[in-house]
Amino acid sequence: MRAPAPLLDVRDLRIAFGERPVVHGVNFQVFPGEKLALVGESGSGKTVTAQSLLRLVMGAHTQGQALFGEAGQQQDLLHMPDRAMQALRGQRIAMIFQEPMTALNPLFTIGEQVAEVLQLKMGFAPAECAQEAIKLIASTGIAEPERRAKAYPHQLSGGQRQRAMIAMALACKPQLLLADEPTTALDVTVRKQILDLLTQLQQANGMAVLLITHDLNLVRQFADRVAVMENGHIVEQGTVEAVFAQPQHPCTQRLLHSKPVRDVVAARTDAPVVLAARGVRVAYPVPRPGFAGWFKHGEFVAVAGAKLEVFAGQTLGVVGESGSGKSTLALAALGLLKFTGELSALGQQWGAAADRALRKGVQVVFQDPFSSLSPRMTVGDIVAEGLWVHEPGLAARDAQQRVVAALHEVGLDEAQFPGLLNRYPHQFSGGQRQRIAIARALIVQPRLLVLDEPTSALDVTMAQQVLELLQRLQRERDLSYLLITHDVAVIRAMAHHVVVMQGGHIVESGPVEQVLVHPQQEYTRILLAAAE
Question: Model pTM greater than 0.85?
Answer without folding.
Answer: no
